[in-house]
Amino acid sequence: xxxxxxxxxxxxxxxxxxxxxxxxxxxxxxxxxxxxxxxxxxxxxxxxxxxxxxxxxxxxxxxxxxxxxxxxxxxxxxxxxxxxxxxxxxxxxxxxxxxxxxxxxxxxxxxxxxxxxxxxxxxxxxxxxxxxxxxxxxxxxxxxxxxxxxxxxxxxxxxxxxxxxxxxxxxxxxxxxxxxxxxxxxxxxxxxxxxxxxxxxxxxxxxxxxxxxxxxxxxxxxxxxxxxxxxxxxxxxxxxxxxxxxxxxxxxxxxxxxxxxxxxxxxxxxxxxxxxxxxxxxxxxx
Length: 286
Ligand code: SF4
Prior knowledge:
By secondary structure, the protein is α/β, with parallel strands linked by helices. 31% of the residues lie in helices and 20% in strands. Strands 2-3-6-7-8-9-10-12-11 form a nine-stranded mixed beta sheet, covered by helices on one side.
């Protein structure tokens, strides 16, 4: 792993994401090296020639001033890296950021594929309305280990349970959903008693990872070639509409709200999780 220390002008960036006000990326690059990582485009902006997943820039930044201006604002960690990737164990940049923001009144939204976040549970608890999400798009460890270098699914689920038990809102982020591979109902069943929100996102294939994924499907699952061709070359959406219907039936049977807009923060902590369909963002409606 190629690790560099770099200095950034600032660490908090106004966010264009629909779900947060600011984003913070304490690292550039990500050792989790997911095959489908959309953030790999960051290479272009940072002059890295090496493969995505083989470098991590560890950021330093000036002291954050007037932290009270972030009161009530949601800060998302992180949009183009994993804030709890292995480098965090040594460099503790995410922890440092949380320490800087402690007491500001900012709301935290953390997304990870790691259980290192457990280290900071006491610190995270001090933020109002914090929530932590784990990406889980399979229960099959073999597929998981082909797709990413992060911790096992069982470790992610254990971390989710620990946070939920501690009264911190958790999200099971079922993303990206691989057609013909991701078993969405099975994942919801595993997570539904330890999360407040299930967020569903379909696999998009664009940029440099499109070919990588299609080649992988062809090599490991040639029986899915025609399905992927229909979806990703012919832009056929039947698969997603059928999956939408399947999830609707499943959520009805389990009395889970199935919606297009997340309102989980205003629900009782112990209420069943809200399942949010984020397929194609606004195109499939109930
Ligand atoms: S954990 Fe996230 S940022 Fe890191 S490689 Fe995977 S998808 Fe990309």
